């Protein structure tokens, strides 16, 4: 078990940023590009979900449920 913990700690230490890396200023162009790519991917995801939902509205079961009116309350 001790060797597994040691291996995980060594792997984590290699993957984390060093103090020198943290103190460097990030490249603003890369940050903006990654942000734009993230927003574009999110917009495509929303458009795809909307497209899939629009086809579900045309199903007869959905149309029938949409036309049902609420029943009046029964007086006791």
Order of helices and strands: HHHH
Strand content bin: under 5%
Mean pLDDT: 76
Secondary structure category = mainly alpha
What is the number of helical segments per DSSP (H or I, 4+ residues)? 4
Largest sheet data? none
For the termini, the CA-CA separation is 70 Å
Work out the helicity level: over 70%
- Annotation, overall tally of beta strands: 0
Q: How would you sum up the global shape?
A: elongated
Unreliable segments of 5+ consecutive residues: none
Mind telling me the C-alpha Rg? 27 Å
Notes on the protein architecture:
This protein is mainly α and about 80 residues long. It has a domain at about 25-65. It contains four helices and no strands. It starts with a helix and ends in a 9-residue tail after the last helix. The mean pLDDT is about 75.
Characteristic terms for this protein:
76 residues, mainly alpha, 4 helices, elongated
In short:
By secondary structure, the chain is mainly α. The chain is built from 4 helices and no strands. The chain has a domain of 42 residues.
Topology:
Blueprint: H1 2-15, H2 19-23, H3 28-57, H4 60-67
